[in-house]
Automatic annotation (TrEMBL):
Signal sequence extent: none
Keywords: Amino-acid transport, Cell membrane, Membrane, Transmembrane, Transmembrane helix, Transport
Chief site of localization: membrane
Transmembrane segments: 40-62, 68-87, 167-184, 190-211, 277-299, 319-341, 362-382, 388-409, 421-445
GO cellular component: plasma membrane
Domain Amino acid transporter transmembrane, residue spans: 37-439
InterPro entries: AA_transpt_TM (IPR013057)
Example GO molecular function: amino acid transmembrane transporter activity
Protein's name in the database: Lysine histidine transporter 1
Family: Belongs to the amino acid/polyamine transporter 2 family. Amino acid/auxin permease (AAAP) (TC 2.A.18.2) subfamily.
Subcellular locations according to the entry: Cell membrane
Membrane topology: Multi-pass membrane protein
């Protein structure tokens, strides 16, 4: 169930804290519950960092797979639905007096039961968070590689410019940063990294659509579907759905972010948290819609699965944008990694009875970073990964699992506005979950046919 609220020194109620001194010490050590002094603006830039990442750069490509009508519809409907489901999660954080559901799986346990809640939520949450970190390894490496290519192209005569460096090495360079940053203890300790990442997301998104406008509509632009067969068009359409789902996924860390905000019965954490969420969603709209629609308008179905790859001039601006992407996905990686660290350290300390020490954390987190780096190097199928993970894991945890929890806990009257809204979200989310991975998996298979491992 949810953790006892008195671990927050600012939270007062009549319930007695029944935890032992050892349990209090462990909660004070774990990443999610160790610090509760965040301000509302922490919520804003943590949510921006969690949501606006690699996904925004693939939105023009997703539009090329979906087409104008379906693409605009799916983008706008997804923005509305995910804002609604995020509001539900913020509201459910402290629905039980004296308790705070600091982790997604704790809310799941309250809704579905101790064991079933774990089995429903934890596998999906892990797939999302580990999957995002793997994709961000690839994104960071590809952006560094793009910077290197552009700089070398501009300085072709330089003897210091190595021309043929493999993507694998750039992923390793990107990973080296996380072998350091992953040892920051909790969410509040990465707030500076997260703020920088949020600023970068707005910056490179603006550069992406601004440079697209500067480049103008291409002479041979084509807005028709790029596949020459019906089956290819359908598979691409499904993959596009997954890429949009990936772009709108930030809910997996919402309760963990809210857990860092202080709360009292008079001033519950949902008030500052929601204020931050509204600001974050305004930023999301400013990033997503211009990039998706303008990028597709300018390049049509010839746009790359990363819009910055389609833009090569002015060189200095595109280099800057790719470096902004690198900084941003550094922050995003940490935001998604922190709940994974919390799960791993909780199991090691509470279940396996390891002592909560710095070297346990050092070994655990380094192994995790090394694992995501290795998988990213092995399977760097960027577009296909987005489509597959977006549908398979992000649709449940973002689009409809909060709605199912809301129906299970609050039990709104049948055919009431709340009941209808939740079922619309559930149906839309289930369709995404079933259909999108098909297109993403096909993209991975097609690219794997011509890919040479570790090349």
């Amino acid at each position: 169930m949810g953790t006892q609220a008195p671990s927050d020194p600012n939270y007062n109620n009549d319930k007695v804290d029944t935890r032992t001194a050892e349990e209090k010490a462990i909660d004070a050590w774990l990443p999610i519950t160790s610090s509760r002094n965040a301000k509302w603006w922490y919520s804003a830039f943590h949510n921006v960092t969690a949501m606006v990442g690699a996904g925004v750069l693939s939105l023009p490509y997703a539009m090329s797979e979906l087409g104008w009508g379906p693409g605009v519809t799916v983008m706008v409907v997804s923005w509305i639905i995910t804002l609604y489901t995020l509001w539900q999660m913020v509201e459910m954080h402290e629905m039980v007096p004296g308790k705070r559901f600091d982790r997604y799986h704790e809310l799941g346990q309250h809704a579905f039961g101790e064991k079933l809640g774990l089995w429903i939520v934890v596998p999906q949450q892990l797939i999302v968070e580990v999957g995002v970190d793997i994709v961000y390894m690839v994104t960071g490496g590809r952006s560094l590689m793009k910077v290197h290519e552009l700089v070398c192209k501009k300085n072709e005569d330089s003897i210091h410019c190595a021309k043929d460096i493999k993507l694998s090495y750039f992923i390793m360079i990107f990973a080296s940063v996380h072998f350091v940053l992953s040892h920051l203890p909790n969410f509040n300790s990465i707030s500076g990294v997260s703020l920088a990442a949020a600023v970068m997301s707005l910056s490179y998104s603006t550069i992406a659509w601004g440079a697209s406008v500067k480049k103008g509509v291409q002479p041979d632009v084509d807005y028709g579907y790029k596949a020459h067969s019906t089956s290819g068009t359908v598979f691409n359409f499904l993959s596009g759905l997954g890429e949009v789902a990936f772009a709108y996924a930030g809910h997996n860390v919402v309760l963990e972010i809210q857990a860092t905000i202080p709360s009292t019965p008079e001033k519950p954490s949902k008030i500052p948290m929601w204020r931050g969420v509204v600001v974050a969603y305004i930023v999301v709209a400013l990033c997503y819609f211009p990039v998706a629609f303008i990028g597709y308008w300018m390049f049509g179905n010839s746009v790359s699965d990363n819009i910055l790859v389609s833009l090569e001039k002015p060189t200095w601006l595109i280099v800057m944008a790719n470096m902004f992407v690198v900084v941003h996905v550094i922050g995003s990686y940490q935001i998604y990694a922190m709940p994974v660290f919390d799960m791993l350290e909780t199991v090691l300390v509470k279940k396996l009875r390891f002592r909560p020490t710095w070297y346990l954390r050092f070994v655990t987190r380094n192994i995790y970073v090394a694992f995501t780096m290795f998988v990213g190097i092995t399977f760097p199928f960027f577009g296909g990964l987005l489509g597959f993970f977006g549908g398979f894991a992000f649709a449940p945890t973002t689009y409809f699992l909060p709605c199912i929890m809301w129906l299970a806990i609050y039990k709104p009257r049948r055919w009431s506005l709340s009941w209808i809204a939740n079922w619309i979200c559930i149906i839309f989310g289930v369709l995404l979950m079933v259909l999108a991975p098909i297109g993403g998996l096909r993209s991975i298979i097609v690219q794997a046919n011509t890919y040479k491992f570790y090349n």
